[in-house]
Give the backbone structure.
Amino acid sequence: MKIIVLIKQVPGTANTRMNPETGVMIRDAGETILNPLDEHAVTEAVMIKKKHPGTEVIALTMGPPSAQKVLREACARGADRGILLSDKAFGGSDTLVTSRVLAAAIRKIGDTNLILAGEKATDGETGQTGPMTAALLDMPVLTFVHRLEVNDMHIIARRMVEDGIEEIKADLPALVTVVKDINNPPLPTIKGYILAKKQKFPVWGPVDLALEDGTMGLKGSPTRVVKIFTPKLSRQTTFYTADTKEQLPGAAEAIIKVLKSRSLTEKGDRYGV
Ligand SMILES: Cc1cc2nc3c(=O)[nH]c(=O)nc-3n(C[C@H](O)[C@H](O)[C@H](O)COP(=O)(O)OP(=O)(O)OC[C@H]3O[C@@H](n4cnc5c(N)ncnc54)[C@H](O)[C@@H]3O)c2cc1C
């Protein structure tokens, strides 16, 4: 079995900064890490490999040359090899183009049974890359997966949905995006780090992927960031006070009126409102 894990290098800080003029994320030389959810995707792939001897796990990332660091980490965590998709022409790609490049690489790798990805990246946070990549490859996609059973021909996945758990069986090849509840990634071992340090990662660009000029980067990206701003969180507090016992019903009535006017009372008068 061949498993590809899509991994992304993300800023190691929660303070993602955006360029207000271009609407593009500012990616300076700050510390970067493996997207935390992708740790779970790599761990899951390695767990499947243990159950299915002969399985190969390949980590795949599109990013700048520095993204080799996350490939190395994936290998330290048990991936067999890694491939970096990197070229100036990829700069400025939106989620569609990112998925286009990833899909082209997956086609080039060939004969893949399962693709694992994180549910979302901590920086862009769209959660679009996994499903878009699957759509471009014309294969089933199962999102928000927290339990995964893999057989030779199909998978059974449990998805966390709004009102419960959904169990789905899908034929392989398929793409699965995972949530953090799927496993507890162990820390990489020293042996893992030593082995990963020796790894060399091939770098594929547009020529290797047969991607035509104009289909990548900003030029190929249909997404236009029209405006970018930090949401202002402000609370406007209104006090309804009752200084005496007699004033209590009046204050309560005023609060109920406000709640009703904002449709904040539950149907069925659960609070006796
Ligand atoms: C107009 C525009 C310009 C942009 N310019 C740039 C730019 O110049 N440089 C840049 O780095 N980003 C750029 N971005 C952001 C870039 O499009 C997204 O970071 C990327 O497409 C992934 O989206 P996301 O972060 O929402 O990931 P999500 O879709 O939330 O990620 C979900 C999962 O998909 C997989 N995944 C996501 N990204 C990758 C990847 N690159 N490689 C492998 N697997 C991945 C991982 O498994 C991840 O857990 C730009 C975005 C826009 C809209």
Remarks:
- The helical segments are 36-51, 68-76, 95-109, 129-137, 190-197, 217-220, 248-261.
